[in-house]
Amino acid sequence: MLVRFFSLLLLVELLLPGRLCAESASDCLLAVGEALDRADAVLFQRKVDVDALVTQGIDVFVACANDPQMAQAMPPILALVLSQASKKDSTGQAIRSVLTSECRAFLLQGVASGAFAGRPQGHSAGQGGMLAPLFANASMGRKEIVAIGNAEREGEGWMVPFTLHDAGNGQNYALEALVKDVQGELKVCQILNLPEIFLQVLHEAQHYAE
Q1: Cβ–Cβ under 8 Å, residues 26 and 160
Q2: 104 and 51 in contact (C-beta within 8 Å)?
Q3: Labelling 139: which of 10, 69, 114, 168 has CA 20 to 30 A away?
Q4: Cα 127 to Cα 15: distance, rounded to the nearest angstrom
């Protein structure tokens, strides 16, 4: 019986850290939602690897811009900028650098200004910067995490499904966040289904334009 007891104790010790990590990964998304609601850019950057997420987003957008059919569905200026950013020369690198900076600023401005918390904004909110026309049609409405699913192991991190409601356009987006430990802090480092979400947004934009 003693052997069985210690075997059970060992099993619990082996399984408990994984369970706690899964719960912590889900809690990371709760903290992101709290940061959006409180317009807390500091907390947002603690729980989201903004640079990694922006880099992923630009990579996805550039890849889509290189697809003629998808590029045709984009606003012309967006397709042009992204196609230039795909070039490997110094011009392409410079455009990508500026695009990265502008996207990062747009995201953090949306959080810090309270726009993503649903707070009333002035006419120019979210429209500053060199590439302002790229964001002219972007929704600045409240972004609310309305559901968080169970975390599942994904490589060295955790995949956490969640639903983001955009009050600006009334749409729900089913996202899959990759949560990883970054220097001792659990952060959202990637949206695993971002290409599909980008397609969804493009289709929505086409529908509204018709």
Answers
A1: yes
A2: yes
A3: 69
A4: 49
| Tokens (6 digits) for 189 | 């480092």
β-pairing, 171-182 vs 157-166, is antiparallel
Q: What is the dihedral of CA 190, 193, 194, 198, to 10 degrees?
A: -170
Cα-to-chain-centroid distance, residue 197: 10
Amino acid at 174: A
Taking residues 121-137, what's their average pLDDT? 58
Average pLDDT, the chain: 82
- For residue 172, what are its two tokens? 């729900």
CA 139 to chain centre: 14
Secondary structure class of 48 (helix, strand, coil): strand
Instruction: Tell me how far CA of residue 180 lies from CA of 15, 21, 71, 194, in angstroms.
Output: 19, 10, 32, 17
CB-count exposure of residue 88 (10 Å: 0-12, 13-18, 19+): exposed
Give the predicted TM-score (pTM) of the model.
0.82
Token digits of residue 120: 């009333």
For residue 162, give the 3-state DSSP assignment: strand
Strand partners, 181: 186
- Per residue in 22-63, pLDDT (tens digit) is 668 999 999 999 999 999 999 999 999 999 999 999 999 888
